[in-house]
Amino acid sequence: MSLAEDLQPLILELLAKKDGISGGKAGSMHLSVPQKNLMWTSAIVGSGVPIAMGIAESLKRTSSDNVVSVMFGDGALEEGCVLESLNLSAVFKLPVVFIMEDNGLAIHTSKSPRSALSEYNQLPEAYGIKTFSGSFKDPISLYESYAKAYKYSRENKLPSFLKVECYRWVEHVGVSEDWHLGYRHKEELTPWLEVDIIENPDLIGISKDFCEEKKSFYNKKFMKMFKDLSSSSDPAIDSLLLNVR
């Protein structure tokens, strides 16, 4: 949504309406803003990574300084297509920035039962890929890590890998808390709340009042848009296979 100049097609897509950006076929799982080069998103773990390799190969042939960004969670690092893509990016020298959000979980499974790596960056480094690290605990340093990764890939026309430490506040799917499931403890959240820039915007020089004002403004704006657009036309039955390949 931060990329879109017009939010209406995105919201219509979320509502699976005819005039959504993908005609209502993509829904919330596969949103895109192609005019701003956000080509595709997917909820299938790791599935966007090999597609990003194809886009990077195209950019390598047609662009002088563009790079591809592809984001995934640490659980996706155990998917075969992600491992193959890391290798492919190094072999073909593709201009791509791999961005891995590390919350230490693959749904409800912590790292140690599913990975023998002591440090996730060891895996891309084994393929000769330059790695960088950052954390939401230090947003300024995280921004600098992003800048370094993009600068490296842009200037060298090579892949880079950025590991971003983060924490999942709520359940895997949904907006509710799930501490009662017992796979983690609420006390883990405390240090993240202390450095969260939404809860403590003064950490980056923004006032709490400003944030509350914007929160209220956008909450009202989006509630009205969703209400107004929910009565928009649904896709016609005979359009079911239109643009499906």
What does this structure look like?
With 245 residues, the protein is of the alpha/beta class. It has one domain: Thiamin diphosphate (ThDP)-binding fold, Pyr/PP domains (Rossmann fold), CATH 3.40.50. The chain contains 7 helices and 6 strands. The model has no long low-confidence stretch (mean pLDDT 92).
Query: Would you count the extended β strands for me?
Result: 6
User: Please, what is the CATH homologous superfamily?
Assistant: Thiamin diphosphate (ThDP)-binding fold, Pyr/PP domains
Radius of gyration: 20 Å
CATH class: Alpha Beta
* CATH architecture call: 3-Layer(aba) Sandwich
Mean of all residue-level pLDDT scores: 92
Order of helices and strands: HHEHEEEHEHEHH
Amino-to-carboxy terminus distance: 26 Å
Give the gist of this structure.
It is globular, with a radius of gyration of 20 Å. 35% of the residues lie in helices and 12% in strands. The protein has helices spanning 8-14, 48-62, 80-91, 122-126, 139-156, 190-195, 208-229, and strands at 68-73, 96-102, 105-106, 109-110, 130-135, 160-165.
From the structure above, extract its key features.
two-stranded antiparallel ribbon, 245 residues, Rossmann fold, four-stranded parallel beta sheet
Note the topology.
Blueprint: H1 8-14, H2 48-62, E1 68-73, H3 80-91, E2 96-102, E3 105-106, E4 109-110, H4 122-126, E5 130-135, H5 139-156, E6 160-165, H6 190-195, H7 208-229
Parallel strand pairs: 1-2, 2-6, 5-6
Antiparallel strand pairs: 3-4
